[in-house]
TrEMBL record:
Protein's name in the database: Alpha-glucuronidase
Keywords, alphabetical: Hydrolase
Domain Glycosyl hydrolase family 67 catalytic, residue spans: 116-427
InterPro entries the record matches: A-glucoronidase_C_sf (IPR037054), GH (IPR017853), Glyco_hydro_67_C (IPR011099), Glyco_hydro_67_cat (IPR011100), Hex-like_dom2 (IPR029018)
GO cellular component, one term: extracellular region
One Pfam family cited in the UniProt record for this chain: Glyco_hydro_67M
Record keyword Zinc present: no
Gene Ontology MF terms in the entry: alpha-glucuronidase activity; xylan alpha-1,2-glucuronosidase activity
UniProt keyword ATP-binding, yes or no: no
Length: 684
């Protein structure tokens, strides 16, 4: 009997130890070692800080740690000073961030010594593209954690609160301090009574963790839900409506962050509908939230007013308005000039607008990078972007410097990431997509971190010591797990670029879901700049979009050095070659190969890389709990099949124009182009 009991007990323990659905993210419980926390103030945020420290402490047992709120000129905003036995900050939130940093260092094994840690950006904001009915635009991890359809849509349940609190904690642990709760393609209903009450309930939970709530608004709300005849920003009744709406919101949520606006973009209404400018629209809203300290994040993702090269349109519309925006307007600019492609050069707006606050918008959800299926660690892409040199003030004018206030003074500094979070147990659909959420927060706090550091931190916190099969029992964990998996993460973005759209190719996706390959996709009646042939321009001569002076002249929007660099095929980085140039199939690449051959090798190497990732992952099975292991293994298998399809589809399609053989040392396509296209057209 006793024996049976022990077996059952052991069975239970191992089930428990190995049941890993990834819900805990990178936040795993501590060692249970005691610690004395001494704090000179009380608040809900400080309580959290104290609790976190007590439960996560991995240092010397019985140690005294002092949490001290005391002004110091070295500390900026919610920054802090860390030392061996003390965290000092100007604000309660600074203390909480200091605690998370201390625990992170303990987990990762980094030194805990005197260090002044200040945030790179003041506003570090997640943008949820969540709809009121619970669906998420470009979401791949289930429905919204904030909104649902049905009779209980506005009931705040206990489980909602638990989830929102977990969400807040995860964000605070990586320094995120703002969240936009709904899609930029906003419903006007967002500003109605029931919805605002739910926003208040969410805000109340997020507040102690230092996270402010924001809403995306529909510009035409005054006429759609306010009973007004117009939403013209020059109409006094419209102004009054927004002022009253702001008042109502701030009465419910005194620390409400402000509004995010997508206007006159992809069919959304905006001030141009009334003959007004983006500045007119943004300023009206800015005036409404100004008395309460709110900001307006006004998106520059626009391309609907002219026939110009889409990549040029945001710059053309916004540059003339520089200097016309109120000081509480921040212009939110996507990292690249088109739309979150696997690789884009930086948007020429960065560093160019001198009298406006500009914030980068990057996409954490993998709309164009394999969605919930592909393992693609995005930090290398963001690092590449942040380190891009705009040359606006000479060499070294990186995007990071131009946007964080260190080179160009801005009233506000901010960065936004389009969230990849949903109701899935592991939050992000793909376990490794959690690393992208993590990376966004870490880079928003410190925009000079390397992808390698971020991957290292995430892997250790997510996988080390999480079950009996891992580090404690495997002294070789670092060699056998950390090293190869980190390398896989670091290579994963380049692999995706290779099998999807190498050498500067862009937007050659199937239809509007942006998942598979579709360089042929061009249904009649659809906007040209939504179709792949507009972007790849393949013909019998060659391939690529000519954005030099002999083409759309997109290069002229960059500063002189950059423009010269991109204009010349010799100096243009090969990764952007076909973004800026239309080149013949036999153009000689730096490798000595023809462009066609190089394209073939790139596609092939992308496939090989993913096949290699499968081996790398299979080898670490002894170090990972079964649930997470099989989850990733299955996803990698699908990614491999997809990569093969991308390669075959693109090479066979482009071969119709190049009329050249696929180099014979490359594995032959295994799909038929006509079948791929037929199936694709049937699906769409
Ligand atoms: C929210 C792309 C996406 C859209 C998205 C849009 C935007 O076009 O495909 O789903 O809309 O960008 O950023 O506004």
């Amino acid at each position: 009997m006793r024996f049976i009991h022990s077996v059952l007990f052991l069975g239970f323990i191992s089930m428990h130890l190995f049941a890993e659905n990834g819900h805990q993210l990178w936040l795993r419980s501590g060692s249970g070692k005691s610690i004395n926390v001494v704090c000179n103030k009380k608040s809900s945020t400080l309580n959290i800080a104290e609790e976190e420290l007590k439960s996560g402490w991995k240092g010397q047992a019985g140690k005294n740690i002092y949490l001290i709120i005391k002004r110091d000129d070295l500390i900026k905003g919610d920054g802090f000073i860390l030392s061996d036995n003390k965290i000092q900050a100007n604000t309660d939130l600074g203390i909480l961030y200091g605690v998370y940093e201390l625990l992170r260092r303990q987990n990762v094994g980094d030194d805990i010594k005197f260090d002044v840690c200040n945030p790179a950006y003041e506003y570090r904001v997640l943008n949820h593209w969540d709809n009121l009915d619970g669906t998420i635009e470009r979401g791949y991890a289930g429905n919204s954690i904030f909104w649902r359809d049905g009779e209980d849509a506005f009931v705040v349940k206990e489980e909602d609160k638990v989830l929102w609190q977990e969400y807040a904690r995860a964000n605070a642990s990586i320094g995120i301090n703002g969240t936009v709760l709904n899609n930029v393609n906003a419903s006007p209903e967002m500003l109605t009574h029931n919805v605002l009450n739910r926003v208040k309930a969410i805000a109340d939970i997020l507040r102690p963790y230092g996270i402010k709530t924001y809403l995306s608004i529909k510009f035409s709300s005054p006429s759609m839900i306010g009973g007004l005849e117009t939403s013209d920003p020059f109409d006094s009744k419209v102004n009054e409506w927004w002022n009253e709406k702001a008042k109502e919101i701030y009465q419910l949520i005194p620390d409400f962050g402000g509004f995010l606006v997508k206007a006159n973009s992809e069919g959304q209404p905006g001030p141009q509908d009334y003959g007004r400018t983006h500045a007119d629209g943004a300023n009206m809203l800015a005036d409404a939230v100004k008395p309460y300290g709110g900001v307006i994040m006004w998106r520059a993702f626009v391309y609907q007013t002219s026939e110009e090269d889409r990549a040029k349109q945001a710059y053309n519309e916004f540059m003339p308005l520089d200097g016309q925006f109120r000081d509480n307007v921040i212009i939110q600019v996507k990292n690249g000039p088109i739309d979150f492609q696997p690789r884009e050069p930086f948007s020429p707006l960065f560093g160019a607008m001198k009298s406006s606050s500009i914030m980068p918008e990057i996409q954490i959800t993998q709309e164009y990078l394999g969605q919930g299926i592909h393992l693609v660690f995005l930090a290398p892409m963001w690092e590449e972007f942040l380190k891009s040199d705009t040359y606006r003030k000479g060499k070294g004018s990186t995007i990071a410097n131009c946007t964080d206030g260190s080179l160009i003074t801005q009233k506000y500094t901010a960065i936004a990431g389009v969230s990849n979070i949903g109701l899935d147990a592991n939050w992000c659909g793909h376990l490794f997509a959690q690393a992208n959420w993590y990376a966004f927060g870490r880079l928003a706090w410190n925009n000079s971190l390397t992808s390698e550091q971020i991957a290292n931190e995430w892997l250790i916190q997510t996988f080390k010591n999480t079950d009996q099969k891992s580090a404690i029992f495997n002294p070789d964990w670092e060699l056998n797990f950390l090293k190869p998996i980190k390398q896989m993460m670091l290579d994963s973005r380049e692999a995706a670029v290779n099998y999807m759209m190498p050498l500067g190719l862009h937007h050659i996706f199937a239809a509007e879901e942006h998942y598979g390959p579709g360089p042929w996709w061009a249904p009649k009646g659809i906007r040209k700049d939504w179709t792949p042939p507009y972007y790849h321009q393949a013909d019998s001569v060659g391939i690529g979009f000519n954005r030099t002076a002999t083409g759309s002249n997109g290069v002229c929007q960059y500063s002189e050095n950059v423009s010269l660099l991109f204009s010349n095929t010799i100096t243009c980085p090969e990764m952007y070659l076909l973004w800026f140039h239309h080149l013949s199939w036999t153009y000689k690449m730096k490798s000595g190969r023809t462009l066609w051959d190089e394209l073939c090798y790139r596609y092939d190497s992308g496939v090989k890389q993913v096949r290699h990732f499968q081996t790398v992952w299979d080898k670490v099975q002894p170090y990972v709990d079964f649930q997470r292991f099989f989850h990733v293994q299955r996803k990698l298998r699908e990614q491999s099949r997809n990569a093969q399809l991308w390669k075959d589809a693109c090479l066979l399609y482009f071969q119709q124009y190049s009329h050249l053989p696929i180099p014979y040392d490359i594995e032959r396509p295994v799909h038929e182009l006509d079948v791929i296209i037929k199936e694709d057209l049937e699906r769409h």
